[in-house]
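User: I'm curious whether this sequence folds into something compact or stays loose and floppy. Could you predict its structure so I can see for myself?
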Amino acid sequence: PATLPATVVVPEVWPHVPLIAISRNPVFPRFIKLIELTNPVLIDLIRRKVKLNQPYVGIFLKKNEENEAEVVQNLDDVYSVGTFAQIHEVQDLGDRLRLVIMAHRRIKIVNQILEDFEVKSSHEMTLTFPLLNTTINVPLDEASTPGKKTRPYRRKRVDEKTNGTLETSEKEEETISEGKSEEKPQESASEAAAAAEGVNVEGNAGQPVLMVEVLNVTHEKFRQTEEIKALTQELIKTIRDIISMNPLYRESLQQMLHQGQRVVDNPVYLSDLGAALTGADAQELQQVLEEMDIHKRLRLSLALLKKEYELSKLQQKIGREVEEKVKQQHRKYILHEQLKVIKKELGLEKDDKDAIEEKYRERIRQKTVPKHVMDVLDEELNKLSFLESHSSEFNVTRNYLDWLTSLPWGVTSPENLSLQEAVKILDEDHYGMEDIKKRILEFIAVSQLKGTTQGKILCFHGPPGVGKTSIARSIARALNREYFRFSVGGMTDVAEIKGHRRTYVGAMPGKIIQCLKKTKTENPLVLIDEVDKIGKGHQGDPASALLEMLDPEQNANFLDHYLDVPVDLSKVLFICTANIVDTIPEPLRDRMEMIDMSGYVAEEKLAIAKQYLVPQAMRDSGLNDQHIHIQDSALSTLIKAYCRESGVRNLQKHIEKVSRKVAFKVVKKEAEKIDVSADNLSEFVGKPVFTHDRMHDVTPPGVVMGLAWTAMGGSTLFIETTLSKPASTKKIRRLIGDHWTPRGCHEGVHENCYDCC
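Assistant: Here's the prediction. I'll summarize afterward.
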């Protein structure tokens, strides 16, 4: 720190001071502040003032807090009222200047003092040493330069007679100029006259505000009235309350009290102390600084202190709540740790890692784990014991062991090998489907003869709504196997089948491993739905991934990417469903036993509706036999005129629609029981969609019956022959098409048949 010249007393009047613009909080009298300057022009000015034993500055608050400049361009950028401060300590850091200043009194800006700076030219002397063969350039001081005259700093007050724009005689301009007299061109007479009067003609436009002329600002006279005494006492009480809540305010209070004066007895200093202790906005603090009425200033300071007190109370409340919460958590943690130690000493509980290892070994104790899987388990458990419980690798290994020990190694569910019970269960759930029922009974018979459970891969294909998915659940119930279903329709990721690699975050095994963990048995029935709609994307081909799983020769050692150990799937009964077999890849179709599920005829639909669909619709609608009766004629009309598709899903929707409308009538008490027949069926389901196809009871001559394929199961056609002229044969070809053209010829016109055929 630079040593400042000793100043006995701070002068009462000091009209010209350098201006230092600060942000955020103004400096109140009797307070010390640390200021760091980086502007080179301002730093040079402060250095000169300190050397001249004039360590005084004016501290003013900037109006715009976003303005980070240390030197303002206009007096309007700062508030006019600030503080006169003395520089107590200077620390010169080269490109920065650090000042410790103490404010003394309020001042007000009267006018800007303009200065004229000219850049000093450097002068050098060249010294030559012949013996050393060396040349050195030595800089010369300005005073020692021959033929150079120095003009001292010059300040001139601009008289209001000379400059008409200045209204008061107390405003000043300051002009600092230096340079070589011989390098300056000869000034004109008018410029010389202007320079003699202190007016800088060229350099003052756009000059930053560095020096200002100020006046001391004193507060208005006041008397120690009862109101001022009450305000003073309330201020002191509030300050004590704030200090008791937050001890950090004691340092600011010590800065005011170390001067040796009684602040309590002085309302002027007390109001400044109250405002300086608060963290209010800069505008509110500036308002206190500018207020000259002591009564109003005390009220402003008291209002800011009350806000600060409420803020301190809220801060203390939040801190108390956080501290209480932390104490509870810390206390709970300590008690848990003590409980662990006590249980460990008594032998009631082992270490966390020992307990985890014991849990995993307990899981596989009753299972028949293959040797290669047991080796992997021992290796992973040994690695787990050396890992830190907070490391990421610990959680990865723990999740892996969770999956590996949760699989049903050697655990199978007892199968139902009774043919009579299986037939009973299958007939209860579904009508017809003789091919599928016979195949399942054959499967049971083979298992009964071999004495062991076996796996198989079946594929049911047929139109929608014929019961492919529901028969699979019925088969699982008949075989007493656990049932698991997942759909591969639209699947594009191989990881859904084969699992993710263990190195990925959030990795999981494939669907079949999840199935074994959920069913807890090695011989579940797995339904792979919509196998003909499997997708293919940039993440692989899931249809190719199914080849290993659905191959009886390979699935005994199925390798999942996550587990990375062989898993036996040979005891799993796989059932796949599809609507169209053409879209199934040939290698996949070759591995499955295809069973066709054709559509139902009208008699089968009628039986299914009476035995299954109508009772289920009545249960879902809350109806019973006392509310509704659907005649067979109504069901037959519904099947023939409304629901001609191969399956019974649309028939089920129409029966549910009838049940809902009957329930609505019953609730509205329009009728207690409704008999649905073919005559009133249109009231519930609307007009028939399909009409009767027979146009002729007895086909007339020239008309024959034909059959056509449609999506609804087929239809009949009446084909009529007619006599036509030879010229019309080409017209028939155009209208009907080439496919029907040969049939456009009739036997009565022999000479034209060769044109058509």
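Summary: Residues 294-346 form the longest helix (53 residues). Residues 158 and 164 are 10 Å apart (CA to CA).
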